């Protein structure tokens, strides 16, 4: 067993997350002074459990749909998670963020931060660091355009009324 798994219920070679229980999260919280952010939170129930177990951040993610069989989009799960967290810890969203307008929508529906995966990897694969920088530049410009088109003066002015649908 690798040293970083000693004292856990995770045995080397076991697939998936069978040992990752809320008790494990509590033990991990007790074992480290580092910030603990849980990724894969898609329901208000799990968001409440995150708070109960002392996490420092909640990451709304369906892992690209690979591990969440519900088929629910993260942008649809975000409002209930953000509402449950109520600003006590940061909420991060990923999955499906491709445009600046996606960033705007995520912020409007309750995210404090937005993570991108594939776009920066495409930039990296095509043009290295310059490609990654260009991806961020494009996203920033698209977000600025979305702010102007929507009549929203700044990021801090984005709110649930900035986009349609349930908050």
Kindly describe this structure:
A four-stranded parallel beta sheet has the order 1-2-3-4. α2 packs across α3 and α4 (100-108) crosses α5. β3, α4 and β4 form a beta-alpha-beta unit. The longest helix is centred in the C-terminal third of the chain and has 32 residues, at 118-149. The protein has one domain: Alpha-Beta Barrel (TIM Barrel). Helix content is 43%, strand content 7%. It is of the alpha/beta class and 167 residues long. It has helices spanning 22-31, 44-52, 74-85, 100-108, 118-149; strands at residues 37-39, 57-60, 91-93, 113-114.
What topology does this entry show?
Elements: H1 22-31, E1 37-39, H2 44-52, E2 57-60, H3 74-85, E3 91-93, H4 100-108, E4 113-114, H5 118-149
Parallel strand pairs: 1-2, 2-3, 3-4
Primary descriptors:
167 residues; alpha/beta; TIM Barrel; four-stranded parallel beta sheet; 5 helices; 43% helix
As a percent range, the share of strand residues is 5-15%
Report how far apart the termini are.
46 Å
Secondary structure: number of strands: 4
**CATH superfamily name?**
Aldolase class I
- Listing every helix as H and every strand as E from the N terminus to the C terminus, the arrangement reads HEHEHEHEH
Just give the CATH class.
Alpha Beta
| Net shape | globular
How many structural domains?
1
Unreliable parts? none
Q: Return Rg in Å.
A: 18 Å
Mean pLDDT across residues: 88
Short description:
With 167 residues, the chain is an alpha/beta fold.
